[in-house]
Write a structure and sequence with these properties.
This protein has 2 domains: 60 residues, no CATH class; 83 residues, no CATH class. Helix content is 31%, strand content 24%.
């Protein structure tokens, strides 16, 4: 998906002001989109705090960018297509905010924590469905 002229203009302006970073990872076919993120300066400005020392953060690695784009794309697809399919996204939370503490049945073992990429709640008429979503891009090697 390419950005509209006004969005591209504003992001490029924010980049010149040092408020966003951008990366354009390799694409096997076609052209890759830019991935944008707030800089430390932008984070400090949003919190009303002084800019931390130590320079700017490094660009995220390509696997992280692909994963973040996949998770975001899934949410956008659910939110845009849901109404035409009869459901709506009632809520959506990501990663650490989406964590759930779990206790085994009958308290027979240690408690744990699920930290999915997304937790979504879909409303379909009177019914509500909760889902933990984990996006696997096949980038983790197991030996």
């Amino acid at each position: 998906m390419s950005l509209s002229g006004p969005a591209r203009y504003r992001l490029e302006r924010l980049s010149r002001l040092g408020l966003v970073g951008a990366s354009r990872p390799y694409a096997e076919r076609g052209s890759a989109p830019h991935h944008w993120w707030p800089t430390k300066v932008a984070d400090a400005w949003a919190r009303g705090a002084p800019v931390p020392r130590g320079g700017e953060r490094e660009a995220p690695n390509e696997a992280f960018l692909a994963h973040a784009a996949a998770v975001t794309g899934l949410y956008i697809a659910l939110a845009k297509l849901g109404p035409s399919l009869g459901f709506e996204v009632a809520s959506c939370t990501r990663e650490i905010e989406a964590k759930e503490d779990v206790t085994p049945p009958f308290h027979t073992g240690p408690t744990g924590r699920i930290v999915p990429d997304l937790t979504v709640v879909l409303r379909w008429g009177e019914a509500t469905y909760h889902a933990f979503i984990e996006v696997d891009l096949g980038t983790i090697m197991v030996s």
